[in-house]
Amino acid sequence: MSPRKSVAEARRTRERIVERGVAIASVEGLEGLTIGRLATDLGMSKAGILGHFGTKEALQLAALDEASAVFQRVVWQPAAHETPGLPRLRAVCEAWITYLEREREIFPGGCLFTTASVEFDARGGRVRDAVARLYRLWRHRLVGELRLAVTAGDLPPGTDPEQVAYELVGLYLALNQAIQLFADPLAPDRTRRALDRLLTRA
Amino acid sequence: MSPRKSVAEARRTRERIVERGVAIASVEGLEGLTIGRLATDLGMSKAGILGHFGTKEALQLAALDEASAVFQRVVWQPAAHETPGLPRLRAVCEAWITYLEREREIFPGGCLFTTASVEFDARGGRVRDAVARLYRLWRHRLVGELRLAVTAGDLPPGTDPEQVAYELVGLYLALNQAIQLFADPLAPDRTRRALDRLLTRA
DNA sequence: TTAGCTTCCGACCGATCGGTTGCTATATTC
DNA sequence: GAATATAGCAACCGATCGGTCGGAAGCTAA
Between the N and C ends of chain A, which has fewer C-beta atoms within 10 Å? Predict the structure, then answer.
């Protein structure tokens, strides 16, 4: 019925698929993201969806890439102009809280990274590798910023950036759970309190 | 072919199903726990499996209950004889680390609670409710132990038990991820270091 | 000994899964 | 304007999903 669209329209279609796919996957998981569900939601045929990616795995990887782009745009980019080190780090942490609290339109089921990391942590395959790679990438940025904060003297000289990054990730896993599973309105402030204890001159 | 077993054998069969179900679910998630897979693994028919539970949902709930019993047995019970308050809490925390590190036979894919909580945190239904209830139950125990530690003077008087429990959960979410996704051998010690900072007289 | 209860099986159900194929209709290229 | 490339569709594939049903076989209570 609906035949070929212009290349621009086709790209737009692909974007719509990925956007919707990210939303579904944040709720149902990357395995629960099915071609049929996506087709129904978008009023397309399954073949029309799959034509853009080839396989479900490629679609899952595209959803992960999109989630990474959103994370960059919402959490890191707004803090880019801050002075490197602790000030920028604190801006990132605050944006991270807001991201988990408010990005319900993009991630109605919470941060896709969290969902995907737990879903695939015990399996093999390209999706698992991509999840691990992205997690490493973002933690690497965190560690870099922490190192700057230490050399600038904004954190005690003995501080281990890897250790602090580890604890930061834990705080955000807890925040995601508190928001999604318990709808706990106190969780953001709990996170801020923990951050204050973690990111002070000592 | 294989007809009725004695009631004792039938109970044993049910236990085998739940045990295997917990192992599968820890890797594939509670949705990825399928009747067919379970039947193949145990050399049974699907009807034979389902006869013990009625529905898949009931099977999922049984797996959650079993996971809770394991947690009780491995993490809390060994610490039961310790003196209430901080000593018992530290024993629990140490057992918790060992539990995430070593319980690969029971949970080859990591703590089932973690998997299930992320898998169902954005959905409705009985399974989600059960996950939330169990999480609340264990956190409640944690808070109770923390309260004892505070009144005993083993933690600073201003300590907020809910806050500390929140951060403890975050640490264990991070540990589960570090072990399962990154196979990071340093993670247990990182957790211990964070615990020391979190559970000292000030 | 017998009657009934229960466990488990084999066969089957409709629905859905990921994916393939052949095609139409148009956008693009020459 | 003709040739080509391609987005998207309808129909279909084998496999698997959760679940049902009738019966076989043996434990258990009478």
Answer: N
CA distance B183 to chain A (A): 10
CA distance B64 to B130: 8
B108: nearest CA in chain A? A122
* Exposure letters B23-60 (e unless 16+ CB within 10 A, then b): bbbbbbbbbbbebebbbeebebeeebbbebbeebeebb
Indicate the DSSP class of residue B6.
P
Closest among B98, B102, B107 to B76, alpha carbons compared: B98
Distance CA A101, CA A112 (A): 13
| Beta-carbon separation of B108 and A123 below 8 A | no
Token pair in block for residue B11: 């109970």
- Summarised one tens digit per residue, pLDDT across range B100-153 is 998 888 999 999 999 999 999 999 999 999 999 999 999 999 999 999 999 999
> What mean pLDDT comes out for the span B160-189?
98
Q: Is the pLDDT of residue B11 over 90?
A: no
- Model pLDDT for residues A160-174, shown as the tens digit of each residue: 999 999 999 999 999
Full-model pTM: 0.94
pLDDT at B118: 98
Write the DSSP string, chain A. Answer: ---PPPHHHHHHHHHHHHHHHHHHHHHHHHHH--HHHHHHHHT--HHHHHTTTSSHHHHHHHHHHHHHHHHIIIIIGGGTTSPTTHHHHHHHHHHHHHHHHHTTTT-TTS-HHHHHHHHHTT--SHHHHHHHHHHHHHHHHHHHHHHHHHHTTSS-TT--HHHHHHHHHHHHHHHHHHHHTT--TTHHHHHHHHHHHHSS--
Task: Answer whether B180 sits within 8 Å of A119, measured CB to CB.
Answer: no
Q: Residue A108: which of B114, B122, B128 has the nearest Cβ?
A: B122
B125 three-class SS:
coil
CA–CA dist B147, B126 (Å, integer): 31
> Which nucleotides of strand D lie under 7 Å from a protein CB?
5-12, 16-22, 24-28
Q: Which residue is nearest to nucleotide C16 (CA to C1')?
A: A36
